[in-house]
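ok new one. same drill as before - structure tokens go in, u give me an amino acid for every spot. 151 of them this time. try not to just spam alanines like last time pls lmao
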């Protein structure tokens, strides 16, 4: 007999522990099986979606750029400055003559920066002869034809 009359025996406790452990294992096995089924279904869905995306991508690549949106400023990306144009511009700037002291010219550079920027951006036709700007700076742009005529 047990020392306490109402407490279960050690054998009963071990049997209860074994049955609860067995129930726990069965519950875990069923949860594990359900989890594996859910995971395999999810993996199958992902495979199907990836296949659909691959089909869409291959179809869009085979269709080509017909559906693409054109660049808003496509001419900016296509037209690049040619080195000949840059050298021509440098030759023209070398011919610029300033008839005022250097310090005064430096002080007035900000006034003419806007004009020079417009001149470079809006590539106007070259003019033969001198151009007077505000009575301070005179430039003489000569192209090869004008130089050939003078010689």
């Amino acid at each position: 007999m047990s020392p306490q009359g109402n407490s279960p025996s050690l054998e009963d406790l071990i049997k209860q522990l074994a049955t609860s452990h067995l129930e726990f294992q069965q519950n875990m096995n069923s949860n594990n099986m359900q989890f594996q089924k859910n995971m395999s279904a999810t993996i199958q869905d992902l495979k199907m979606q990836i296949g659909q995306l691959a089909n869409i991508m291959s179809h869009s690549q085979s269709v080509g750029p017909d559906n693409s949106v054109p660049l808003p400023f496509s001419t900016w990306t296509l037209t690049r400055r040619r080195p000949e144009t840059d050298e021509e511009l440098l030759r023209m700037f070398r011919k610029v003559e300033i008839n005022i002291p250097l310090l005064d010219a430096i002080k007035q550079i900000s006034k003419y920066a806007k004009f020079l920027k417009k001149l470079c951006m809006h590539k106007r036709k070259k003019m033969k002869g001198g151009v007077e700007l505000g009575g301070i700076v005179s430039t003489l742009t000569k192209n090869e034809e004008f130089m050939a005529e003078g010689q």
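Residues 73 and 79 are 11 Å apart (CA to CA). and btw The chain has six helices and three strands.
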